[in-house]
Amino acid sequence: MTQFFQLLLILVLQISASAESAAPKESVRLVDYVRPFVGTQGEGNTYPGPSAPFSMIQLSPDTDNELWETASGYEYSDSTIMGFSLTHLSGTGIPDLGDFLFMPQIGNPKLVPGTKADPDSGYRSRYSHDEEESSAGYYKVKLQKSGVTVELTAGERAGMIRMTFRANAEASILTDLHHVLTGKKWKVIWSYVRVENNSTVTGFHLVNGWAKERYLYFAARYSRPFDKAEIIGDGQPVIYNTYRFRSDKEASGANLQFLAKYKTRESESIIVKLAVSAVSAENALKNLDAEIPGWNFEELRDKTRTKWERELSRIEIEGSQEEKETFYTSLYHAFLAPNLYEDITGEYRGLDQNIHRAEGFTNYTVFSLWDTYRATHPLFALIQAQRDADMINSMLAHYDQSVEHMLPIWSLQGNETWCMIGYHAGPVIVDAYLKGVKGFDPARAYEAIKTTAMNPNYDNVATYAKLGWVPFEKENQSVSKTLEYAYDDFCIAQMAKALGKKDDANYFAKRAANYKNLFDPSVGLMRGKDSHGEWHTPFNPHFYDESTGVNDFTEGTSWQYSWYVPHDVPGLIALMKGKEQFTEKLDSLFTFREADQSKGVSDIQGRIGEYWHGNEPSHHVIYLYSYAGQPWKAAERLHEVVKSQYGNKPNSLSGNDDCGQMSAWYLFTCMGFYPVCPGSEYYVIGAPQIRKATVHLSNGKTFVMNANNLSDKNIYVQSVALNGKKIDHPFLPCSAVSSGGILTFEMGPEPSKWSTNPQIPK
Amino acid sequence: MTQFFQLLLILVLQISASAESAAPKESVRLVDYVRPFVGTQGEGNTYPGPSAPFSMIQLSPDTDNELWETASGYEYSDSTIMGFSLTHLSGTGIPDLGDFLFMPQIGNPKLVPGTKADPDSGYRSRYSHDEEESSAGYYKVKLQKSGVTVELTAGERAGMIRMTFRANAEASILTDLHHVLTGKKWKVIWSYVRVENNSTVTGFHLVNGWAKERYLYFAARYSRPFDKAEIIGDGQPVIYNTYRFRSDKEASGANLQFLAKYKTRESESIIVKLAVSAVSAENALKNLDAEIPGWNFEELRDKTRTKWERELSRIEIEGSQEEKETFYTSLYHAFLAPNLYEDITGEYRGLDQNIHRAEGFTNYTVFSLWDTYRATHPLFALIQAQRDADMINSMLAHYDQSVEHMLPIWSLQGNETWCMIGYHAGPVIVDAYLKGVKGFDPARAYEAIKTTAMNPNYDNVATYAKLGWVPFEKENQSVSKTLEYAYDDFCIAQMAKALGKKDDANYFAKRAANYKNLFDPSVGLMRGKDSHGEWHTPFNPHFYDESTGVNDFTEGTSWQYSWYVPHDVPGLIALMKGKEQFTEKLDSLFTFREADQSKGVSDIQGRIGEYWHGNEPSHHVIYLYSYAGQPWKAAERLHEVVKSQYGNKPNSLSGNDDCGQMSAWYLFTCMGFYPVCPGSEYYVIGAPQIRKATVHLSNGKTFVMNANNLSDKNIYVQSVALNGKKIDHPFLPCSAVSSGGILTFEMGPEPSKWSTNPQIPK
Fold it and tell me: What value of ipTM does the predicted structure carry?
């Protein structure tokens, strides 16, 4: 095609795209497709309460605060609610947050939560899903014990709780500063509460949680003055006993609660508007008053729903009601985190625990990078480029504040949890840089990435750099670390090359090949090796020891991790002696049945043989069929996973959503391609799962995917055309997406010859 | 005297004063008279380590951190030192501070302090007073265990520790973040330490102490890079165990320590320069680098000594070496507190726990007002007027931040301890206002004073206002509170009058007379009364119950508190049926002997009968003789107290110095007058205890006191002349002092007729 025709084609496509987006929108509200309950039952670990996109506050009901498996505080199967707290993580495998629980009561107020079996022993209440609803920006439930209807809505830093009481002489609203999602492991170290005036309370707690030292403040304004206000310390009212004065308007201690007491009229609604800050109570009040100056619950809800509508409309799809509900809920979940982490003043609490001001960027936290580098950030690079740049600038600020001079690994509200492995901030930044995301300094970013990858202390990276692998006797999860370092190094080499840093590019390219050092040809799999070059013996490719967590692999087995060479699949195929043996082995991953199917961490489900879709190491694996000339097998497995492990029901998610990674996998997969190797120039084509997607890219361009004849039977790709030109390989250039265009699939009921002998780009 | 002659006289006096101050100064260094050990043995509770005047940091050795009686951390009788911490209170009765202990060691470092009996069981070391010295701005000691000589010096916010080691392969410097002066009651709630680089450490702790929730950060720079740096958490080195990464460069927890390890050469000195901040580690570093950019120990020491010289030269005296040592040490102690409490950035942590910026004033903390309103602040009004204004502005900021809308009672580093009784910030401000201290807003100050005195929650002030007394069945220490409220109310009335607020003046003047309501004529003393007007029965005028602290009196008895009507002594004399019965009763206070002399709190000593000079309620009492026409009795008692309860020895102070109040009593008394009633227009003349004092007032004027013929025998006032004019009464107008002038006493060996029938001003 000549350049002229290319331009002409793009023009035509853009006209057709805008014609489409000019269609009447009033009738279609994407926000109405969102089902926040998806993922709340079982392993998904999402929460049903409202928040704005990427917001700092997330109001949501907590049904549990002790179970590790109820990391978001809400489990759909639970039949009691403890109350409504202000912050929540979406889809993580470890609990934290759940700061500051609010709970209306009637009668003599209870000061302990009580148990699930006996909710009447505390402030906990039974509820029914029949009297519960949730939508983007809104949650409602009727508490059976008190008869109070509770409604929640939330904006960026502030939210509202509306409680509608029956007539009662002894109504009260409890704030429990001692409540956090503890997983029986974390605890509130200290707290402070202050009754600022007859309708305003501020408070603070310091939590030793997954985030080791986390400070959070809140401010609460009540729509009507308290009839009586009472602070409770260690279960007793804080009063002055006439011996040595103590104010009853403030208290500090490890276990504090506040009771706003009212005599209520029938159907009286009391609204509490709330905000949080990691800096100070003063800033929490500023956040509150700036965002919610008035008392209009619906106004805030509608404002937040409008924000969601704007974000969700970045991708428009055609599909059934169920498909749309699943798709837009996935997009909603992908847009919940990372979270805004700065006050209206621009101040935030840094990793060094000093108060910083975000200059020239918006600061974010909650970087679940081992998960989100895979598909979430690559999605952001396309349709959330400005936020992606802000997130990168946030990571660079983290780097500046890090005593180890490292980019985040898994950072959470001014803390580094050091959770999971690798140095995957690298791929996120490199992928963004190579995809044209603007708004951060590439030289500064590269310096941070390189310094992180050269850290002499972290996880035996230095030994890896010297030896070519992480020796298992020196480091836990040595094989997974070696493999992921190698991939990260590939990304760094790509950026070094782009920046003209030849020596660095060569150095990291060499490190990128380190994966080969742990491939044991005698077993045809990746295997632990000690510092003398001896293989780890005995070797069981299916071994997984959850009880100790000490293993050569990270949340997985050799059988699973042996596929982890996203940056050099041809190299891996060669190690496995060619495509035939490669695909045979891959087949057996899905068919392998072990006697004991309960092995592995219990919250990793979505298992098809030893393919565990509920955890990230498997996420790129199905797409490897596309490299090996058997795309129909990818089509079958992708269809199977999408149909069985996603949906619009509370239990639809098979694994932790992990701050949107499970959802982002689904979104890409639906559109027919996936970033197997972020930082490379190609997406890998699988098989589309929705009929049409129109992607409004952040750069103003539009990308359209059509899957002609797609149906539950027509799951196989027959042919693919990019901008009208057929392609017979599964490698979709990233530039072809970001420059806008049309990707057209012809689908059919049987495997085709399409892409059965592809040239794999290196 | 005509106005012309008055002016002439003042001119002459000023010329003579400047002639005097033009005398060669090089030979006389007032700072050399300071003996910081005074008050470190027994009840004085001072500390021997260095600090600048009114400074934020106070480096000093701690010999104890558990005894309530060793509130400043150092007891001269102890023979072991735990280490050297950064902050100390001067003379308080309750321990707190002692933040961040530094201790050099050799050999395998100990991580627990060890006991006094067995110091070798920990890092504690024996030392000898023969190898110890202390002067203003400097402290030195040789630690016997390690052979390390430790020297301390300090400036405003930063100080230095110089440690001179012998050659040792295993030298180390411990920082114990867990160390505070606990009195076995307080504790470190949380802490954080961070090895910023190979010679810099920052840290933080949150202390639940006398100050309920106190945040303090430190920064430390070492003069040479660590050979090895180690963080200790709960007694174990913080290392990475290859399972889940943890940095060895930072840690948080309740029990943290840091070890800087060195191989030292013979006589090698290692300096640690240190600063504190209540805001952040970042600010602590800023404070450090701004104040001590280099490494010159002597330069900082000399700078601080120059500051002390400037402050001490506000009063020049003639006297013996011992008298000068006692006097200038008292002045030194009076100038240790309140303490600077803002960073070099102007930021400080407010009572509301928000970070504030002091705009237009310098922020101070440590307001021991029940003590210091008596003589310390009246002294400041004369010779530290600018700081007094800053302190008042600091109290007004406290008021603005107070959830109870109250001026400080006993405030300590962003906390209100609610220690002691009354609302004595009022007298401090009123006295300053009436004495002409400029630099604060009187209208705003008055509003704060009045609001404080009208608080409906605090210590039954509201009942007092309504009933005329605090009923004993409703409130502990009801008599002392009634009496002190009445005095405070007198002050408020004075200011209201001066501001033209007639109604307020009348209202508070009426409250000022409330003391009469608790005078029981049947016993001739002050006595508890219930809300029905019934006297507290049985009544024992000498009753003091230390064990419960529940009593009608505050740290005293009826016999002592019955003299507390500083604002209306004539009224009290009238209640006591005239001067004769008044003085007889007063005599018996000094002669009363009870079988059990151990009653009362053990740290209140300085007892002459039931006159307990070691505690503040007695401080004005001797001067009451002057009102009653028996000034010679005052002269005898004043001489007795000065000679027996003050001096230049470690055990010279008979009671807690209480942030300078014991010392300020001495300073005024030496000069022959005392502020019996701050907020009134008169000082009360007693009997001078030094030959001459030249006071350089903050307003630029000079006031001179001459005590002609004073000697150990000539202790009686024969005559008094003010600016050359004889006066035959003991009431020295405050204006006569503040306008500059000469007060001349003629002293003799026998009581004279001087002032035996004075007209008492009302």
Answer: 0.93
